Amino acid sequence: MKGNRFDMEHIEIAWCPGCGNFPILEALKETFESLKLDPVDLVVVSGIWQGGKTSQYLKCNMFNGLHGRSIPLATAVKAANPRLTVVAQGGDGDMYGEGGNHLIHAIRRNPDITVIVHNNMVYGLTKGQASPTSIRGFTTRIQVHGVTSEPFNPLAVGISLNASFVARTFAGDRAETSRILTAAIKHKGFSLVDIFQSCVTFNKVNTYQWFKNHIHPIPESHDSSDRMKALELAFMTEKFPVGVLYVNEDRPTFEENLPAYDSSDEPLYNREVDREKLQQVIDGMR
Fold first, then answer.
1. Pairing status of strand 61-64 against strand 85-91
2. How confident is the model at residue 2 (pLDDT cuts 50, 70, 90)?
3. Which of 25, 37, 137, 147 holds its CA 20 to 30 A away from the CA of 120?
4. Which residues pair with 217 in a beta bridge?
5. DSSP state, 246?
6. Distances in Å between the alpha carbon of 37 and those of 42, 102, 144, 149, 253?
């Protein structure tokens, strides 16, 4: 994206032509630019998945961690320096499979981070196995008789656990994706954004056209503070709702609950270590 401060110029992007990660990357750059973020004050954390290099294609601070572990890393970064804007991202396998427990307990803690999930309903990096969101009947070289498990419903799980921001969008609509991402990042608290995207190589079922035929925009009349109405939307799977389902502005964040910030808002990374107290802790472990 020419002229964008977050654009890494003259790099080779290692994704298949037509991959849904491309429009998500562009939407992220547009969002960061529109929010007037300084690349120095932005951290994008990734796990291991087909789009894990997304953080490497952005001109900002990045951390590429282990499979399913981007959320605890992002939580720690935000706790150490609450002044940073922190985004964690992963695929549907990375976040909902390997990272499922981290997702659940981060929702409970409510760190002020934005979690973006590139949901293509398949494991793309490891060449096409069924993921937690694969639909029933979906066949792969491993699931030769078709998937029989119930698909994981991230929106219903997020809302039921009272996540403070829950939304879904479609990578094929870049403007709407950027709008949703902007709202998620501006929200104070844990934001979950599930992004439908297509894997053009290993998923020939959930194509761009399939997603277009199976989504519908949430009505403008929807009250996003109504948790029960939001749950009703989350359980719609014939036509998946896209937009902001639920927002709770009343939950304190994880950082606000940390005793370390009771008497000072100075970021933890910038504080001097009390060597005497540290030694007491070490001695107590002997």
1. unpaired
2. low
3. 37
4. 242
5. E
6. 7, 27, 47, 41, 21
